[in-house]
Structures are given as C-alpha cells and as structure tokens.
Amino acid sequence: KKVEEVVEKVADDDDDDEDKEEAEEEVQEEEDEEEEIIELQGKELKQRVVLLEKVLTFFVFDYTRRGLLDADKLTVVSMMAIKILVRAGQVTMEERSVLINAPPDPSAGAMPENAKSWLSETQWGQMKTLESLE
Fold this sequence. Notes:
Blueprint: H1 2-13, H2 17-34, H3 43-66, H4 70-88, H5 93-101, H6 121-132
Helix pairs in contact: 1-2
C-alpha cells in the first residue's frame, strides 16, 4: 500500500519516471528496515524471555482481576501467586500443600492469653503449622 500511495502522489505531481523509481526505492528501503529481525543469543535471550514472562504474567493477572467479583479476587490471586512461585521453584510442593490445606498442628501447645480473644484453637494450630515451614 505504501508503494502505491507514494507512486500515486508522485504520478499526480509529475509523471516523471525517475521520481517514481526514487519513490519506490525509498519505500523499499523503509520496508527492508522494518523487516530486520534481531536474533538474541545467550544472556540477552534469557533476559528477554524473563521479561516477556513477567509481562505476560502481569497482563494475565490484571485481565483476570478485572473479571472477578471482589469476594473471589483474593482466592484467585492467591492461587495464581502460589502457582507462579511453584513454577519458579521458590515454593516446594510441601509448602504449597500446607498453604492450601492449612492443616492444624496437633502439638501446637497452649495459646497465649492475649491471642485467645481473636484466634480460635484451629487457627492457632494452623499458624503453628506455618511456623514449622521455616
């Protein structure tokens, strides 16, 4: 299309063949520049892949977040975050299982008096299980 537009402009202004050829050469040079593909290797390629992965992850997260009801956002975001961390190797499958299932520690011990007003015994046991992951 660019070639035709430039050729038409030149043809309207002046029917000189030299102008048409120059215009076609300019357009061809522009297209050649646009078609240039840069091949990345080694460290640059890895950096590019990591960057693309981060960008795609953010866009998937953002798109998903916008389509959820407020009551479901925390659940879905937590699931996505855990999945991302597992794939990155920052969270083990054991840690994932504990985070999702939240089993209470049967030998949690006595709950402090100041925590009894806002924690149940089950929640205390679950917190002790999380504490054991460290």
